[in-house]
Amino acid sequence: MKLFDVYPLYDVTPVSAKGIEILDDKGEKYLDFYGGHAVISIGHSHPHYVNRLKEQLDTIGFYSNSVQNPLQEQLATKLGALSHCEDYNLFMCNSGAEANENALKMASFHTGKSKVIAFSNSFHGRTSAAVATTDNPSINAPINKQQEVTFLALNDFDVFEKAIVSGEYCAVILEAIQGVGGLDEPTTEFYQFVEEKCKSNNVILIADEVQSGFGRSGQFFAFQHHGIQPDIISIAKGMGNGFPVGGILIHENIKASYGLLGTTFGGNHLACVATLAVLEVLEKDDLMANATRLGDYFKQQALEIPEIKKIKGRGLMLGLEFDFEIADLRKRLIHNQHMFTGSAKNKYLLRFLPALNITKEQIDVFFAALKTELK
Cofactor(s) for this protein (predicted)? Predict the structure, then answer.
């Protein structure tokens, strides 16, 4: 049997990693400034994370949600306290796409409606309703296109209001910082307007924090930069530092009932411990403050490079926009400088999504290499 060939692959085979350093099968060292799409939030093989998982494996790794699992309650308490979202309830699943599926399903249950408002250049996953709300027709199969989704421009107040007052929608789904789309953001005024209109029209506001959550923007959630309160928050990626885990935070105004949502693997013992370990490191090492400090430092360094036309993002969810497509630059950074970076739907944007405990010295190494490749 062969692998189903859906990924264009760089010719690099990582075999071990620590912090932001990765070793390949030839013994070459690479620096990871991308974290596998913002997944590696506290660094590869963080000792606290590794020890927590090992200890849990020695006791119990999995049982289904048909029995008590106190780790889920511990996680909900810790997550609520650190994120300041105590007035939400936690449902755990396995990925960001699944989180958004459950968020959209809950919105439809709650309102009795099915249409969704999403935004240009959005990315919410690759499954069913999640991919239908993703602004990329090439990854939407006919079965996905049965979903009724209206795509609107970010920050267009009039168009948004005309759509939402129709009374047809169950949900608005919005990234506070677009990931794959290219790091565009709603303004604070627009996000607050969306929140207000959702409330007055009985529409569920879903904050997609799959990539921007867990401290990456400098706040625990990126929507917290705008002073709003969503009805549902979707989470994944940096949540587990590489362990496959996702979830949604559902405001307590939305009531639960048996059978409303379900999952086999979601919230298993290892997933809970992986997420608890991430939260413990985020808190102990003050990594949200570090994301803010080093995000500011990154922007200062970027201003010194004339080829960079625009700096986008917040905290350590950042992008550098050039006046040329960056695919070749990204290849040179991998092969010549041994550095992983990211791309976006915006072909002129180089994405920078390192672990939140990155240092100034490592950022300096990145910019020295970037300058070399821009000569």
Answer: pyridoxal 5'-phosphate
User: Does residue 75 lie within any of the structural domains?
Assistant: yes
pTM exceeds 0.90, yes or no: yes
| Pair 259, 189 in one domain | yes
Looking at residue 327, its pLDDT comes to 97
Residue 185 maps to a domain: yes
Q: Output the pLDDT for position 246.
A: 98
Q: Which segments in the chain show pLDDT lower than 50? A: none
> Residue 270, Cβ neighbours under 10 Å: how many?
20
Q: What's the 3-state SS for the chain? A: CCCCCCCCCCCCCEEEEEECEEEECCCCEEEECCHHHHCCCCCECCHHHHHHHHHHHCCCCCCCCCCCCHHHHHHHHHHHHHHCCCCEEEEEECCHHHHHHHHHHHHHHHHCCCEEEEECCCCCCCCHHHHHCCCCHHHCCCCHHHCCEEEECCCCHHHHHHHHCCCCEEEEEEECCCCCCCCCCCCHHHHHHHHHHHHHCCCEEEEECCCCCCCCCCCCCHHHHCCCCCCEEEECHHHCCCCCCEEEEEECCCCCCCCCCCCCCCCCHHHHHHHHHHHHHHHHCCHHHHHHHHHHHHHHHHCCCCCCCEEEEECCEEEEECCCCCHHHHHHHHHCCCEECECCCCCCEEEECCCCCCCHHHHHHHHHHHHHHHC
User: Are 154 and 243 within one domain?
Assistant: yes
Together in a domain, 70 and 201: yes
CA dist 155 and 351 (Å) reads 23
Determine the Cα–Cα distance for residues 343 and 111; give it in Å rounded to an integer. 37
Range of the domain at 346: 14-42+286-374
From its phi and psi, is residue 216 left (phi > 0), alpha (psi between -120 and 50) or beta?
alpha
Q: Is residue 194 part of a domain?
A: yes
Structure tokens at 269: 């013992």
Instruction: Please report, for the domain that includes residue 366, its CATH number.
Output: 3.90.1150.10
Domain end (from 235, 262, 284):
284
pLDDT attached to residue 201: 98
CA distances (Å), origin 264, targets 94, 242, 267: 9, 19, 9
**Residue indicated by tokens 């296109």:** 145
